[in-house]
Amino acid sequence: MAAIDGPRVAAKSGKARQLVVFLHGYGADGADLIEIGRQWRSFLPDADFVAPHAPERCAMSPMGRQWFPLTMRDPDERWRGVISARPTLDAFLDEELEKRGFDERSLALVGFSQGTMMALHTGLRRRKAPRAILGYSGILVLGPDQPGAERSPQSPPPNVLLVHGEEDELIPVDALMLSANSLADMNVPTQWHISAGLGHGIDNAGLIHGALFLAQAFGVKVEFARR
Fold this sequence. Notes:
Blueprint: E1 8-9, E2 18-23, H1 31-40, E3 47-50, E4 56-57, E5 65-66, H2 77-100, E6 107-112, H3 114-123, E7 132-136, E8 159-165, H4 174-185, E9 190-195, H5 204-218
Parallel strand pairs: 2-3, 2-6, 6-7, 7-8, 8-9
Antiparallel strand pairs: 1-3, 4-5
Helix pairs in contact: 2-3
């Protein structure tokens, strides 16, 4: 099992109390999302941010990475993919938490597209739930037999926010509602936000929603400057 790593942004305060892990999409790498960590430092001054590169080179984008292959021909490949990639991500999370002396209640997973698939699949199967899972433009991957197959019983469950572009051409916005309904069936309460007119990406409204969601999940008071 290959170890993974990627770019990092240290806590603005100099003393980390939370860890936010970004999981990039298919064909990208950790550098694609770490800039969001720099933007969120004012909302989460005590958070370390890290964006590991996925373990495999991407067949469709040789300069990028993938958590698992995507051919779009096999309906079960996402399920097999998240299962095969999960041990590598779990090992990375375990190491990052251990070296800080944190447990999962100090952890948030933030995914985009394929990274959202990994965040939801892995986060829902850890022994203790992360404090929060934030998924952009992705989908909850369900097994062929039943929703939540092999999912760990977690109490309390993670806080979950799903954000999606209304005009997403790669993963249609219907995926948000399907995922939210499946999470509800698993007794995982889910918030959601749809960005009007947005395709497969993240807009400023989605970034603000995400930052405020994580701050609330971690119990961080956000101060807004008065005009």
